[in-house]
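Before the break, one more example. Copy the sequence into your notebook; we will annotate it together after we see the structure.
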Amino acid sequence: MKRGLFFVVILMVLFCCKKVEKKEEKAGASIQVMELEKVSAGKHVLMVVAPKDFRDEEYVVPKEMLTKEGFVITTASTVTGEAKGVSGTIAKIDILLKDFNTKDYDAVVFVGGPGTPAIYDNPDAQRIAKEMVGDGKVVSAICLAPVILAKAGILNGKVSTVFPSAKGELEKAGARYQKTAVAIDGKIITANGPEAASRFAENIIKMLKTK
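Here is what the structure looks like once it is written out:
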């Protein structure tokens, strides 16, 4: 009888220990989630689009993914009001490139598309790229937009990628062109087109959370 009671007590102790372990695991997971939320909270990302014919997926996909992670998104262009994508997406313009202060942001995303050449040589777009790099911020560009970084002089010697038709522009600027969907060199992230939009955004998020 006493022996049976002893085993019952042991089983109860083991059961209680398991419950405590589970609670600790849940608490640990909750702390990790809270830490990630703290990293994202208050971080601001600028998305730059051409006034017309930007590539819709390259704007919508990263914006949705960044917003979901808690980052604050601001959209900029060379025009006020709205910019229109190739497939009809309307991007509300929050700020003009000329009025942008890089000190207030943690990352910039240059969106590509057939309309991007209109801002290749824009001095404010190039200023933003140079200042963000100078401040150690995350600088990213997709599709044709890496050409903006090349013309700003920040890809010299850097591993980077771009939409294939613009490969020559990067090489002319001294970039180490890589035929890949996404290329990362320090805090510069480039991608070669809309199919890479999700991977592009994932890398931006990862870098912002670990910087």
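Helices lie at 2-40, 56-68, 123-134, 146-151, 167-172, 197-210. The chain has six helices and twelve strands. Try to locate both features in your own notes.
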